[in-house]
Design goal:
Length: 363
């Protein structure tokens, strides 16, 4: 059991057993089912064991778990014991982060960060005054963000190295972008006191399309009813035209209305660019879609009518290119808000209690 706890309990809690020590450490241990255990080696006990009570616990000290004695008033976990022949009766439940908590709002449960919106590759058109890449993470406490460039050297990108960079929550804005300074691979890190997570690596590059040359095209004399070839001046451009893997636009997933109340119809829309045809589908984390869900516009738009509190959750738009067979996805958190409902009867009662002058004043 000690070896199991070393791997399973990273917080190094103390664990009650059903064992009772009769008189001292050298005496018999009696388990709750009435069986006894004798011949306990002194190596099985923590050095600070004192004969305060006879309740047997596992406690961690040094680098391992050993037996100890504790008061019954100690707040500690309890090891559930069952005969090996009856172990098949144990039901393994699917437990979420709210299991065993008293939080009525799941958003209040302390948790480490989880990225719900991954950043996307960005092509900056030469001459733009600013550009941004963004990631969004959930967590409690609210995560803080850092951006890194050239992920193997882990160079943090912030105003400390260049005032053109601004980080607002998970959004990194680049003012007056410069090809030689800003091209590269970027990665977002979201952190709180429980840990950190990293986003996917994205590439920031620059797109250039030069002007047609100002030189006049040399005129050609052509005989009637004969062919001629006119060459279009070659332009400098990058990136080169090629098959494009799907990329979901920065402004999507879009949710309408932005503040969703009980009973309303909501719309979640996804928009991607890439080599056609693009195929869309939606999923919901850990749950199926509400039974009031309908899809429109080649599954780009998801609508839920008469929304309930239980419809809250993380929804993900998946897009696959039928030409390149590559896919991408993006997630958004849908939060349903309740409201205070005032009945007409109460309103009429208040009006009846007012004088005519007061009613005219309110009207």
């Amino acid at each position: 059991m000690g070896r199991f706890l070393i791997g399973a309990d990273r917080s190094r809690h103390s664990w009650f057993t059903s064992g009772l020590l009769s008189v001292s450490k050298d005496s018999t241990i009696t388990w709750k089912d009435g069986t006894n255990f004798t011949g306990v080696s002194s190596d099985w006990w923590n050095e600070d064991t004192a004969d305060r009570t006879n309740h047997l616990i596992y406690s961690y000290k040094g680098d391992t778990y050993k037996w100890n004695l504790a008061e019954t008033s100690l707040e500690a976990a309890y090891i559930c014991e069952i005969d090996r022949a009856e172990a098949f009766r144990i039901m393994v439940e699917s437990r979420g982060i709210d299991y065993g908590t008293n939080y009525s709002n799941p958003n209040d449960i302390p948790r480490g960060p989880k990225i719900i919106k991954e950043p996307e590759d960005l092509v900056i058109v030469t001459g733009e005054s600013s550009a941004f890449i963004e990631c969004i993470a959930m967590g409690n406490p609210k995560p803080t963000y850092k951006w890194y460039r050239e992920v193997f050297t882990r160079e943090e990108v912030s105003w400390k190295i260049d005032t053109r960079y601004t980080t607002t929550n998970g959004r990194l804005t680049i003012s007056n972008p410069v090809d030689q300074l800003d091209t590269g691979d970027y990665q977002c890190e979201a952190s709180n006191k429980f840990g950190s997570v990293l986003s996917r690596i994205v590439q920031v590059s620059f797109g250039v399309l030069s002007e047609f040359p100002s030189d006049d095209i040399i005129p050609q004399n052509v005989r009637a009813e004969t062919g001629a070839v006119f060459q279009c001046p070659q332009l400098h451009y990058k990136p080169a035209a090629a098959m494009r893997n799907p990329v979901i636009h920065n402004d999507f997933i879009a949710i309408f209305p932005t503040s969703v109340l009980l009973g309303e119809t909501i719309s979640m829309e996804c928009m991607a660019f890439g080599s056609e045809p693009l195929k869309y589908h939606w999923t919901r984390e850990n749950k199926g879609m509400p039974d009031r869900t309908t899809f429109y516009s080649n599954n780009r738009e998801l609508r839920i009518s008469d929304v309930k509190l239980g419809d809250s959750g993380i929804y993900t738009c998946h897009v696959r290119s039928g030409y390149t067979w590559m896919s991408t996805r993006k997630s958004a958190y849908l939060k349903i808000e309740g409201f205070i409902h005032c009945t007409a009867a109460k309103l009429e009662y208040r009006v009846q209690d007012l004088s005519i002058d007061h009613i005219n004043h309110y009207l």
